[in-house]
Write a structure and sequence with these properties.
Low-confidence stretches: 1-51, 277-289, 295-304
CATH topology: TIM Barrel
Shape: globular
Organism: Rhodocollybia butyracea
Bound molecules: 2-acetamido-2-deoxy-beta-D-glucopyranose
InterPro entries: ASL1, Asl1_glyco_hydro_catalytic, GH
CATH superfamily: Glycosidases
Protein name: Glycosyl hydrolase catalytic core-domain-containing protein
Pfam families: Glyco_hydro_cc
Distance between the termini: 25 Å
CATH class: Alpha Beta
Structural class: alpha/beta
Number of domains: 1
Number of helices: 11
Strand content: 15-25%
Number of strands: 10
GO molecular function, one term: hydrolase activity
Length: 313
């Protein structure tokens, strides 16, 4: 997430007030736009026809959407996890920028994807993954950003060869994502340097982050990073529309989830974010807090109406 989004804190108190913490209601009618917008799939992108194939969203064996995940199920409350996981819930995976799940997430039955956030503790990465039978790993979070993991590309490449590449021997079949750069101007140059320095690194998929307004900017970025970094499968591990108008955000969410469900090269996506536990901080600005020892910055607080929409439709 990016600091320039600090000011964009949307306080959607009317909707929040309708929703007690452990009982989600349907989105309030006042929070949705009555305008029906252009279908995402009808928007034209020059790259689309060339490089993408589409099909229906994959479904897990228990009927969830195999692509749809949550970033930071911020809760020590098992009831919140049960809400995510209720019969009609579509979310099939979760991550919290940490390497090992707290007990409530570990017990949730929702797949937890570990992340090696920065260089800290990387010596013990293999043990940590083996202890939880992990088969997928996310790596460095926004290393191009000095307020996040802040690792230069050459150091990241060295760390990768020393601690990450050997996982292919200790955990056969593991799938490993590239470092997830920010969508700021520093991101793409950082990744270019990283891939240049890490020619012997095996990178299975490319996690990306994006913040902005409107589907077109998001889709352009998605296709750009897909083609620029070797047509690797994409995981959108953080994204959100930063508009202050809830109706714009709802439209963006509706269109992007539907569209990404059809794009074969988008393997997973996670809306930013699920922050039930810090709703009491809504009036703090900017919203910074420490989560599991990591400094977090919350650019936008969205109403639970929107979260509900993401979880269920
Ligand atoms: C979540 O759902 C899955 C699949 O229905 C189930 O196996 C698991 O026990 C559920 N988790 C909780 C905490 O109820
Ligand atoms: C790695 O694990 C060992 C013991 O399992 C511990 O002593 C050590 O402090 C850990 N190192 C890091 C960097 O966490
Ligand atoms: C990992 O797999 C082993 C062998 O199947 C199993 O005994 C163990 O409980 C699993 N550990 C976790 C944390 O799932
Ligand atoms: C990549 O591996 C090859 C073969 O082991 C080696 O010769 C080369 O120096 C390595 N390149 C880098 C950048 O480490
Ligand atoms: C990516 O896909 C395009 C279009 O199919 C192809 O021309 C290009 O060679 C691919 N790039 C890589 C690195 O595979
Ligand atoms: C988003 O989709 C839901 C149903 O899936 C619908 O109720 C809502 O009106 C849609 N919102 C917008 C802005 O299109």
């Amino acid at each position: 997430m990016a600091f320039h989004l600090f000011a964009r804190v949307s306080l959607v108190l009317t909707c929040l007030s309708l929703l007690p913490s452990s009982t989600y209601a349907s989105p309030a009618s006042g929070s949705t736009s009555s305008t029906s917008s252009t279908s995402a799939t009808s928007t034209t992108f020059s790259a689309t026809a060339v490089i993408s194939t589409t099909s229906a969203a994959p479904t897990t064996s228990n009927g969830k959407n195999a692509k749809r995940g949550l970033s930071y199920p911020d809760t020590d409350n098992l009831a919140d996890v049960l809400n995510i996981n209720q019969t009609k819930g579509l979310v099939s995976w979760q991550y919290d920028w940490g390497l090992t799940p707290p007990p409530n997430l570990a017990q949730s039955g929702i797949q937890y994807i570990p992340m090696q956030w920065g260089s800290g503790g990387i010596e013990n990465l293999s043990q940590a993954l083996q202890a939880q039978n992990a088969t997928i790993l996310l790596t460095f979070n926004e290393p191009d950003f000095n307020q996040q993991s802040n690792i230069d590309p050459n150091t990241a490449a060295q760390l990768w060869m020393q601690h990450i590449e050997p996982l292919r021997t200790t955990i056969p079949g593991i799938r490993i994502g590239a470092p997830a750069v920010s969508s700021d101007t520093t991101g793409v140059p950082w990744l270019t340097s990283f891939f240049g320095a890490c020619t012997n690194c095996t990178v299975d998929f490319l996690p990306i982050h994006w913040y902005g307004e409107g589907v077109e900017g998001f889709y352009s970025y998605l296709f750009q990073l897909y083609s620029q970094f070797g047509n690797r499968t994409i995981w959108v591990t953080e994204y959100a529309d930063t508009s202050l108008a809830d109706s714009d955000v709802m439209t963006f969410m509706n269109q992007t989830t539907a569209y990404m469900d059809t794009l074969d090269f988008v393997e997973r996506y996670a809306w930013f974010g699920y922050f039930v536990g810090i709703r009491s901080s809504l009036l703090a600005s900017p919203l910074t807090f420490t989560h599991r020892g990591l400094k977090m910055v919350l650019p936008i607080v969205r109403s639970l109406c929107l979260v509900f929409q993401f979880l269920h439709s």
